[in-house]
Design goal:
plant defense; binds magnesium ion; about 210 residues; Disease resistance RPP13-like protein 1; 5 strands; alpha/beta; about 45% helix; 10 helices; Rossmann fold; binds adenosine-5'-diphosphate; 2 domains; NB-ARC; five-stranded parallel beta sheet
Length: about 210
């Protein structure tokens, strides 16, 4: 993903490339986006980086306002979407911008997306928008490049993650029976890191087999 963001060959006339990460809740979309966002190569490449959590009550107006406030670091009281977009356009024009929209779930259709992204057509060539979403519909609506589908963790990695939280990576296993039970529990998490991590934290306080 970093190399896509930094590559010079853009397809079509799009100034801003759009990368979509899609997967069920807790699979690691925001974590992956965060790793990319803070990668040292990415730091140096963009003039402006903005991270917006879009999960609560996203509509074009509120998201545009949030982006503008994040860019200017000032509160904004513009009530008209059109004026808001003009202000944002002024802020991003000529800059190489990375916009991260985390957890987008209610973009209805392509037209809505085109309106939302329109100020970013004035960014410098090579700008990027990264979207994370749990919705296949959203992913299909906004993607231009193939979407990244996150897969569950493999069995052994799941166990390593669980034991990291439950037993400090194994050093707290006092009873070998706990590993057997732990592996059974982790199989039920279906490779979802959020579930594994949460259970690991919980199991840490339950070191005996009965519990
Ligand atoms: N590959 C991974 N290995 C270990 N932990 C992970 C991994 N991916 C995600 N996590 C952890 O799982 C939790 C959920 O991840 P998150 O990125 O918030 O999921 P999502 O954004 O898809 O809902 C976080 O606590 C994160 O640290
Ligand atoms: Mg997330």
């Amino acid at each position: 993903m970093v190399s896509i963001l930094l590559s010079d060959n853009l397809t079509g006339q799009d100034v801003t490339r759009v990368i979509v990460i899609v997967g069920v809740p807790g699979i690691g979309k925001s974590t992956l986006a965060q790793l990319m966002y803070s990668d040292s190569r990415v730091q140096g490449y963009f003039d402006l980086k903005v991270w917006v959590c879009a999960s609560t009550d996203l509509n074009i107006y509120t998201v545009t306002k949030t982006i503008l406030e994040a860019v200017t670091k000032l509160p904004c009281d513009i009530e008209d979407l059109n004026l808001l977009q003009l202000r944002l356009k002024e802020e991003v024009t000529g800059k190489r911008v990375l916009l991260l929209l985390d957890d987008v779930w209610n973009i209805e259709d392509r037209i809505e997306w085109e309106v939302l992204r329109s100020p970013f057509q004035f960014c410098q060539q090579g700008s990027g928008i990264v979207v994370t979403t749990q919705s296949e519909h959203v992913a299909g609506t906004i993607r231009t490049l193939p979407a990244y589908h996150l897969n569950p963790l493999p069995c052994e990695d799941s166990w390593i993650l669980l034991s990291k939280y439950a037993f400090d990576g194994g050093s707290l296993i006092t009873d070998p029976g706990l590993e057997v039970i732990g592996r059974e529990i982790v199989n039920k998490c279906r490779g979802i890191p959020l579930a594994i991590k949460s259970l690991g934290i919980l199991l840490r306080t339950k070191p005996d087999r009965e519990e």
